[in-house]
Design goal:
313 residues, 3 domains, disordered C terminus, 6-stranded antiparallel β-sheet, 5-stranded mixed β-sheet, alpha+beta, 6 helices, binds zinc ion, elongated
C-alpha cells in the first residue's frame, strides 16, 4: 500500500512519541489527522511510522502538526523550570547601513516572566489563530507561527499588529526543538552580539564626550552619534528622532498618498517633529530643494547645516 513516512506519532495516552522510541505492541496515530499509523521497524530502514496516502493528510501537514506539538512540549518544560528554547537571531547591528552587517548569531533566552500559559487553541479578537501562543495571565505576549508550506504574509503580519511574533521552520524544529531560528519575526528590541555591543559602548562614550564639549545632552526621544562637521570638520553630535518601525502604519499612509522622496521628507518632518526639549543644535531651517523650512542638525560650533547635500540650503 502506498504510504509516506512520519517521524512522530501520537500514543494512546496522547503523547508525542518519536519513531525511534516507539513500541511495537502499542498503537500510534497521525499527529495531524488522527488516523492510525503503521509502525515499521525493519533492519534496513530507520524506524518510522507509515501513513496511508489518499486520506487528505500530507507529509507537510504532519510535519506542521509535529512541530507545533514539539514547540508546546519544549515551552511547557521551560515554564516548569526546564532549560527551555534558545532563540538564535542574526546580530542586527548595522543592518540599516549599506556596507556593514554583522554575521554573528546571538542566542537569546525568552523572558520567563512574560509567560504563564502556552496554548495551541487561542484565537485573537481578529479571528487569527496563531499555531502556538504564549500568554501572561490572559494577555497574549508572543505568537509562534510554524512554516511548513505557507509563510506568514503581510496581511497576517498586519493582523498580529503589535503582538511580538516569530515564525519557525517546521523541519528545523523537528531536528532540534530547543533551537528556534526565526525565519521571520517581529520582536521588541534588537539582537546585538557581544563584539558589536563593545562597538556601541565605544560609540556612546564618544558621543557623550562630544556632547560634553558643547554642553549638549541627549534628551529622551533622541539618538545621537558623533560625526564630523561638513564645514569646520570638528567632531559634533548629530541627533535623530524619527525611529519609525517597519510595521508602522505611517508607511502605508505614505504609499496611499503616493508621495515623492522630497514630499516624504516633509511629511515625516511634520508628522514626527523633534520632541521637546530639543537639543539647541536641532533647528528649523529653510531648504532650497524642499522650498520649505524643516528640522535639521546644525554644527554647534560653526552653525553650518549638516546635510549630505549642503548646496540645498
Ligand atoms: Zn494524517
Ligand atoms: Zn554583531
Ligand atoms: Zn562646524
Amino acid at each position: 500500500m502506498p504510504s509516506f513516512k512520519v517521524p512522530f506519532g501520537i500514543s494512546e495516552d496522547h503523547s508525542l512519541v518519536a519513531a525511534e522510541s516507539a513500541n511495537k505492541s502499542h498503537k500510534y496515530f497521525c499527529p495531524s489527522c488522527g488516523l492510525p499509523l503503521t509502525f515499521r521497524a525493519g533492519t534496513i530502514k530507520a524506524k518510522h511510522f507509515a501513513h496511508r496516502v489518499g486520506t487528505g493528510c500530507s507529509a507537510e501537514s504532519v510535519i506542521h502538526a509535529i512541530a507545533k506539538r514539539l514547540i508546546e512540549k519544549v515551552s511547557l518544560e521551560w515554564i516548569a523550570g526546564g532549560p527551555g528554547p534558545q532563540i538564535a537571531r542574526k546580530c542586527e547591528f548595522g543592518q540599516e547601513l549599506e556596507n556593514y552587517a554583522c554575521d554573528s548569531i546571538v542566542q537569546q533566552q525568552l523572558p520567563r516572566n512574560r509567560v504563564s500559559i502556552v496554548t495551541l487553541e487561542r484565537t485573537l479578537p481578529n479571528l487569527r489563530k496563531p499555531d502556538v501562543m504564549f500568554l501572561l495571565d490572559d494577555t497574549p505576549t508572543l505568537a509562534i507561527e510554524i512554516f511548513a508550506t505557507h509563510k506568514v504574509d503581510s496581511a497576517k503580519a498586519e493582523d498580529l499588529g503589535e503582538l511580538p511574533w516569530i515564525e519557525l521552520d517546521a523541519a528545523a524544529i523537528l531536528i532540534n526543538p530547543y533551537c528556534w531560528s526565526p525565519i521571520q519575526m517581529n520582536l521588541k528590541g534588537k539582537a546585538i552580539c557581544d563584539s558589536c555591543r563593545q562597538v556601541l559602548i565605544k560609540e556612546s562614550e564618544k558621543s557623550n564626550s562630544v556632547m560634553n564639549i558643547f554642553g549638549l545632552h541627549c534628551p529622551s526621544g533622541y539618538h545621537v552619534k558623533a560625526v564630523s562637521c561638513y564645514h569646520c570638520k570638528l567632531e559634533i553630535p548629530f541627533y535623530t528622532w524619527q525611529d519609525i518601525g517597519q510595521n508602522d502604519p505611517v508607511w502605508s499612509e505614505i504609499k496611499d498618498l503616493k508621495l515623492s522622496f522630497k514630499e516624504i521628507d516633509i511629511f515625516l518632518d511634520r508628522k514626527f517633529p523633534p520632541p521637546a526639549p530639543r537639543p539647541r543644535s536641532v533647528q528649523f531651517r529653510y531648504s532650497k530643494t524642499l522650498q520649505e523650512r524643516h528640522w535639521v542638525n546644525v554644527c554647534p560650533s560653526c552653525e553650518w547645516i549638516q546635510s549630505s547635500s549642503i548646496s540645498d540650503y
